[in-house]
Amino acid sequence: MNRKKRALLYRLGAVALLIVISAAMLWVGRGHTVYFDNKTLEYEGQSYPSFYRMTVKDGDATVAKLAKRERGMADWMGQHFEMQVEVLTEKGAEPVVYPIKLELPYGMDGIVVNLPGMVAGLPQQAWVSEFIPSEPQGAQEEELPPTEEDLVPTDI
Amino acid sequence: MKKQSQASGAGAVARFLRQNSVPLMFIIICAVLIPISGFSAGYLINEIVTRMGRNIFLILSLLIPITAGMGLNFGMTLGAMAGEIALILVSDWQIWGIPGIVLAMIVSIPISVGLGLLCGKILNMAKGREMVTSYITSFFIGGVYMLVVLYMMGPIIPIAHSSIKLPRGYGIRNTVSLLSMRQSLDNLLAIRVLGVKIPTLTFLIIGLMCLGIVWFGKTKLGQDMRAVGQDIQVARDAGIDVERTRLISIIISTVLAGFGMIIYLQNMGNLSTYSSHTQIGMFCIAALLVGGASVEKASIGNVFLGVILFHLMFIVAPQAGAKITGDSMIGEYFRVFASYGVITIALIMYETRKRKAKLMAGRQLQLAQSEDVK
Fold first, then answer.
1. Could you tell me if residue A78 is inside a domain?
2. A29:B106 CB<8 A
3. Which residues of B touch A77 (CB under 8 A)?
4. Is B280 exposed, middle or buried (0-12, 13-18, 19+ CB in 10 A)?
5. Is the pLDDT assigned to residue B275 strictly greater than 60?
6. Within 13 Å, how many C-alpha atoms sit on residue B230's CB side?
């Protein structure tokens, strides 16, 4: 193999390596915001009521403490989501721990997890939905393109 | 004998003072301003360490073109723009943390290479006037950057998130939040020593970069660059492809500047879309010159010393100005004046030295010719 061919091969190899690293970064670094709802879920004509208290934990760290009809949230990087939820059916009751295991859909930035539905063992499509942020109400938010005055150096 | 050694000692001191006049001047300025500012040593060390992690990589990108005799690469702004475009895209794709930074660096490479290629080609057409040419090229590409970011992002380059897009539906907002990757690099493996946060990973990357520059200097390409930097004609006669070597040096510098800008912005935590890059070249060059570098010679040591002295002045000058005159703006004016002033002094010194060398060479030739006639 002559030098030119070898150099070309090295270059192609480097490009391929960068593409592989990029793909890996796109996968492992995808950020999602996961919202936890402790709200009553209606599914196929049946009602799954909210619990007295739910505590979402990531290992030992508490992520959200939810009373009835409350929502909590957590940021998560990657596609495989795994946390635990501690459920208290009534005041003074013994807490029951359930694992939350979920493959997050790549295309969704915000994912809402209905915890009562998940605890009831319903299929995933019943308790997972996309979070769609509401458009700002009232006056349209104003931000104009930059003018010369905006082009002032910032701190270094 | 004693007199002779005294004279040579005095000469050495004078030479040292002449060669290090800029860093010494800044050491004196800082020594005067620090007590006036009233900042504690802990605060100053913390700030300096943070700013070292933030800026050193960017300034290191200036070293290779200096070796290749292309002077101070004002065209590093092009790399900074490439880094910013990459960060905007990665923010829109919602890639967070270290993976986001790595991906931004990879995305910036083709943009930086393209811009570096363009800049290098232009500089090859303007040999001997590289600095002013690269300075103006950065303005030209700045206009193209505005076109891309203000009009093409949205309708042509897909941008999904309204938090990044202007409310009118196209173009990027004045500020893009990089909260999802803010200080990810600095915080990973960070340690605290006597209350000072040391961004170990960032310093590790800077250390590797320094080793890379030293290693590069010993390679065939590095040696070629040095030869081209010393004398283009001699290098050409020795069989070196001068244009190609110069082009590669600018491409490497632009790519590294793109990486440096990403490291810089992840530390800041937000991106001023239309102004982050505008002054970066100027401040990096000023810091390098404050460290004792010149248009023809710069080392890694100059980078470190320059960052420490220049940023020390940046931190203390406003407070000292406020204490002395009651108006902090005086300090602000002073630091801007000093950064532009030091570039001016360096350019004047470079031109004076060049003319003096030319004059000396002319005189020597005249002397040799007159001796031949005799």
1. yes
2. no
3. 96-97, 99
4. buried
5. yes
6. 10
- Report CB contact under 8 Å: A26, B97: no
Return all residues near B252 (Cβ < 8 A) that are at least 6 apart.
Answer: B64, B116
Residue B102 CB partners (closer than 8 Å, separation 6+)? A21, A25, A29
- State whether residue B314 sits within 8 Å of chain A by CB: yes
- B55 contacts in chain A (CB < 8 Å): 156
pLDDT score at B317? 83
Contact B92, B173 (CB under 8 A): no
**CATH tag, B22-367:** 1.10.3470
Query: Which residue of B173, B268, B280 is in closest CB contact with A143?
Result: B173
Rounded distance between C-alpha atoms, residue B369 and residue B374, angstroms: 9
Residue B180 contacts A where some CB pair is shorter than 8 Å:
yes
CB contact under 8 A, B275 and A29: no
* Contacts for A94-102: CB closer than 8 Å, 24+ residues apart: A95/A55, A100/A56, A102/A34, A102/A128
> Residues of chain A whose C-beta is under 8 A from some C-beta in B?
18, 21-22, 24-26, 28-32, 75, 77, 109, 140-146, 150-154, 156
Q: Is residue A26 part of a domain?
A: no
Domain enclosing residue A66, as ranges: 31-130
**Domain ranges, ordered by start, for chain B:** 22-367
CB atoms within 10 A of CB A13: 10
A20 in helix, strand or coil? helix
Specify the pTM: 0.89
Structurally, chain A folds into a number of domains equal to 1
For residue A130, how far is the Cα from the chain centroid? 10
CA separation for the pair B113, B125 (Å, rounded): 18
pLDDT (tens digit per residue) in A66-125: 999 999 999 999 999 999 999 998 888 889 999 999 999 999 999 999 999 999 999 999
CA dihedral B262, B265, B267, B270 (to 10 degrees): -140
| Number of residues written out for chain B | 374
Residue A5 lies in a domain: no
CA–CA min distance B264, chain A (Å):
9
B174–chain A Cβ distance below 8 A for any pair = yes
Residues of chain B positioned with their CB less than 8 A from the CB of A22: 103, 106-107
Q: Alpha-carbon distance B108 to B367, whole Å?
A: 55
Domain-embedded: residue A8: no
